[in-house]
Write a structure and sequence with these properties.
single chain, 244 residues, alpha/beta, 6-stranded mixed β-sheet, 4-stranded antiparallel β-sheet, 39% helix, 25% strand, globular, binds adenosine-5'-diphosphate, binds magnesium ion
Length: 244
């Protein structure tokens, strides 16, 4: 369902994504691990075209864009509408309630009518366990609740895939589980997910496949058992020793 071929991204003369090709099947949960600065965030941002790749193709569902050619705004919009993103920091609008934050993309991007957008937003906020917090502002919510609003916001757009960029890494330890619980439920329901995380136990539990990247390339990939218990590459072994 997702096919990324020979993706490249540089910032000036700093090549961050050297050459990444990744296929993700419908309903698959792919976890990406790797050292800080290895290009994990940039990779996800390229998939959502928050960063413009320099070369390579990205296909999500029926939409395929070749970044070696001239890319139109319409190409970008089409690709972006297929993906939802949950960031390390929640990125909610501070002057909007939880409900308004989830409605915002539906009304402005998807051009849905307010009443319909409200119903959808209520349904997704209920799904992430925030039925009783809909009318609160981000500052009135805990970090874990804010991240769950971010997940509801991504879900409401009904994307083909949700990209998670270290969604729990900025949270106090006692708030991590409530976010992982929502992600676990999504995975069980068959949502296609690409997740950058350092929560290794969680990764082991939900990932169909683990990708270890470093220096803008895939060093090694396989099932959680293969990568975590029997890593082949020295770089993978070293990284796993550092974080476990
Ligand atoms: N907007 C940007 N402008 C310039 N350099 C960037 C930008 N975003 C990321 N980088 C650089 O890309 C490299 C990889 O960063 P990033 O994708 O955030 O890695 P990771 O998420 O694995 O820690 C870093 O060297 C970082 O400085
Ligand atoms: Mg990052």
């Amino acid at each position: 369902m997702i096919s990324i071929q020979q993706l490249q991204k540089s910032f000036g003369d700093n090549t961050v994504i050297r050459d990444m090709s990744v296929e993700v099947a419908k309903g698959e949960v792919v976890v990406i691990i790797g050292p800080s600065g290895s290009g994990k965030t940039t990779f996800l941002r390229c998939l959502n075209v928050l960063e413009m790749p320099n070369a390579g193709t990205i296909q999500i569902g029926e939409e395929k864009v070749d970044f070696s050619r001239k890319v139109t705004k319409r190409d970008i919009a089409k690709l972006r509408s297929q993906t939802g993103m949950v960031f390390q920091h929640h990125n909610l609008f501070p002057h909007f309630t939880a409900l308004e934050n989830v409605m915002e993309g539906l009304v402005t991007v998807k051009k849905e009518r307010k009443e319909k957008a409200r119903q959808k937003a209520e349904a997704y906020l209920t799904k992430v366990g925030l039925a009783d917090k809909m009318h609160l502002y981000p500052f009135q919510l805990s970090g874990g609740q804010q991240q769950r609003v971010g997940i509801a916001r991504a879900l409401a757009l009904e994307p083909k895939v949700i990209l998670f960029d270290e969604p729990t890494s900025a949270l106090d330890p006692e708030l991590v589980q409530e976010v992982l619980k929502v992600m676990r439920e999504l995975a069980q329901e068959g949502m296609t997910m690409v997740v950058v995380t350092h929560e290794m136990r969680f990764a082991r539990e939900i990932a169909n496949r683990v990708i270890f990247m470093d220096g803008g390339v895939i060093v090694e990939e396989g099932t959680p058992g293969e990568v975590f218990q029997h890593p082949k590459e020295e770089r993978t072994k070293r990284f796993l020793q550092l974080i476990q």
